[in-house]
């Protein structure tokens, strides 16, 4: 059974940091593009960042550039999202997903297409 499991969410004050982890089971990340998406209450889901295993290239949303960093540890079959200098507008449920087409509009879109698997999400709350 294929599973993506996110962890590392929680509550933090503005300016603080969290590190999210996505671990896969049932398959390996070796050839999989992996992305992080988020959905805030009452808002559409949006792509945050994704990483391409072929060259470790990444896409990141403008709203998180310079603050969030995506990385991977293929040996651990894990992808991470380091979130620094967090803001209240980062509050959302964060999901990891495997993406079948590496393109900016897919990685940073609303996740309506181009996604093979989703995790169940981990909540992040940033207080001011």
Give a short synopsis of this structure.
The protein has 128 residues and is mainly beta. It contains one helix and eleven strands.
Your description of this structure?
It is globular and about 40 Å long. The longest helix is centred in the C-terminal third of the chain and has 4 residues, at 104-107. It has 128 residues and is mainly beta. The chain contains 1 helix and 11 strands, in the order βββββββββαββ. Strands 2, 4, 5, 6, 9, 10 and 11 form a 7-stranded mixed beta sheet that branches.
Provide the fold topology.
Elements: E1 3-7, E2 10-13, E3 18-25, E4 33-39, E5 46-52, E6 57-60, E7 68-73, E8 78-83, E9 92-99, H1 104-107, E10 115-118, E11 122-127
* Structural class determined from secondary elements: mainly beta
CA(first)-CA(last) distance: 40 Å
Shape: globular
| Number of continuous helical runs | 1
SSE series: EEEEEEEEEHEE
How much of the sequence lies in strands comes to: over 45%
Which percent range fits the helix content?
A: under 10%
Q: Spans of 5+ residues with little confidence (pLDDT < 50)?
A: none
| Main pleated-sheet profile | 7 strands, mixed
Question: Using DSSP, what is the number of strands?
Answer: 11
What's the rounded overall pLDDT mean? 95
Gyration radius, in Å: 13 Å
């Amino acid at each position: 059974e294929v599973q993506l499991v996110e962890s590392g969410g929680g509550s933090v004050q503005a300016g603080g940091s969290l590190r999210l982890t996505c671990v896969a089971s049932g398959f390996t990340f070796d050839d999989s593009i992996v992305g992080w998406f988020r959905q805030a209450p009452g808002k559409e889901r949006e792509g945050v960042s994704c990483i391409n295993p072929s060259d470790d290239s990444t896409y990141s949303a403008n709203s998180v550039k310079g603050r969030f960093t995506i990385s991977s540890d293929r040996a651990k079959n894990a992808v991470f999202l380091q979130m620094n200098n967090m803001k209240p507008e980062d509050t959302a449920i964060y999901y990891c997903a495997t993406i079948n087409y590496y393109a900016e509009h897919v990685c940073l879109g609303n996740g309506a297409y181009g996604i093979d698997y989703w995790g169940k999400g981990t909540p992040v709350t940033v207080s001011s």
